[in-house]
Predict the structure of FAS-associated death domain protein-like isoform X1.
Amino acid sequence: MPGYRKTLSNIAEKQTSADLKRMVFFCKDVEGMTKRDLEVDSALDLFGKLEERGVLSPAKTTFLGKLLGDIARFDCLEMWEEYQRGLASSKDTKKGQGSSEHPDLEEFLSDDYLLKLSKEIHAKDREPLGIHLGIKELSKYEISHPGNLQGQVLAMLKDWKGDTMTDTKSDEKQVRFLGDCLAKTGRNDLKFKLLKAHNLSPATG
């Protein structure tokens, strides 16, 4: 498995000038990022700026995953996910047998998991799911990902995760909440898959 630097380099090589322009646009809201910081000639230069601003490192992988999803470069997102899976595997090896009854939240509600889920959401499901999740300004996803349903859904799910998945003690509660929202949208099939992936039984009460 390629390491952190090699993976970033491989991803950077695949970015077109249009990709770089869109990435720069999405990075404008990064705390501490200046206009001068965004005057970059390559994706690799931009990644260096993200490292300087503390949102990208071998352990901080969420922002770049979201960024690649935002620009609809799912091939590069898969490369980044491969790195993350290798990182998680390495941590598991060091930890040995886990003592938790259920898998860690990040293992399943990772960008890779959300990517797979986004592929199963139909066009008619996107808006109702967003409403049940409490997402505001749903139209912004159509603007940022015109004509790209999967990109819209993935960005929406990542925003929800970023806003709510901060307390590790509430992992099971949040997973069940996502499942309930899928059910309310009429996708009990996806709720079942979600609970099964997390080794959770349907709530009985």
The chain has twelve helices and no strands. The CA atoms of residues 130 and 138 lie 7 Å apart. Residues 97-106 have pLDDT under 50 and may be disordered. The two ends are 44 Å apart (CA to CA).
